[in-house]
């Protein structure tokens, strides 16, 4: 059974800006900076300073007059808001070209994401390792998810296989699905699906491009 | 100089739903279906039928009573709205794991996107081909973009290189940038940047997951 831990829900547009603040704060930490103002962050990201102040207020952290926010404190608080301070263990299903790219992506560690196993139905792939992560047969998906208490699944399989994979993940106890397949998944109401479909991002770009012509 | 071709701008949330409608319509075309109702589409995608009707109204196509929309006509009209009926030629910069995955992704053809060349600064990669696409030295980026009249650039390079690459693309005449690097690009007002950063999508998912606990 899935229950709400907190009552405060951060709106999605704010959530999507938080990784950008985190990038800036990590950069400042690397440079040894101790304080940062919301107007500095706003200017670095071409955002409205009022927007940035409002977003950062979800952390409950108050900046010091003339100094601003303590960089480390603000960073930790934002990482907590996204649960990126904890390790989110995930299964990846579909070890094709996109799946392999995600398996090889080092940046996920900074987002608290760890892909612990990958699954595929291609006998030529099963048993091999991609960037140290073993490819297992998709038939073992449900059993393994249950046994390893995995709550997060990443689907990088073709569209026609995605629904069946989602069902298997959910049966194994997965409650969050990061879906890269170009298909709408039918899931129970308590399951969280986040679609990371490139086509949506590309649609915005090509439409805008078609409306701009070079003379 | 960049001028507006049309005055109607489709709002972003609508634009992001259009690829999902296109997926459904392509599927129906494959099955030989001639007509489709907006309520069928709504049900397939778990969307509000009123929302779907409103989205589809941007095409100007009117459904026939009791039959609904003509599948092929609606599909072509949606493809036109996204400019996916035309070929958008693009350069990709950064032939690492994500870049290579995008170079190998066959689905882009369906979105009217054709990556015609890739660029990298690694001498070990330059001159090789990934899925038939030649890797060229990044120093040739501006000159080649200009010569080939490329208007679309895809940045899959590391964060620290992304701004310089964007500048080179823009100098070569690129007006649309699909940015996969986790960094905010500073560009002139007439340049369109669409960020496809995985971290934003993941932020929404991990935050929601952290608020749901299994008992």
Automatic annotation (TrEMBL), chains A, B:
Alphabetical list of Pfam families matching this protein = CoA_binding, Put_DNA-bind_N
Q: Cite the entry's keywords alphabetically.
A: Cytoplasm, DNA-binding, NAD, Repressor, Transcription, Transcription regulation
- Name the major location: cytoplasm
Which Gene Ontology terms of cellular component type are present?
Answer: cytoplasm
Task: Tell me which species this is from.
Answer: Melioribacter roseus (strain DSM 23840 / JCM 17771 / VKM B-2668 / P3M-2)
**What subcellular compartments does it reside in?**
Cytoplasm
> Which sections of the sequence are annotated for DNA binding?
20-59
According to its UniProt entry, the function of this protein is described as: Modulates transcription in response to changes in cellular NADH/NAD(+) redox state.
What the record says about family reads: Belongs to the transcriptional regulatory Rex family.
Q: Where is the signal peptide?
A: none
Mind telling me what this protein is named? Redox-sensing transcriptional repressor Rex
Q: Which GO terms describe its biological process?
A: negative regulation of DNA-templated transcription; response to redox state
Q: Where does NAD(+) bind?
A: 94-99
Per UniProt, subunit arrangement is: Homodimer.
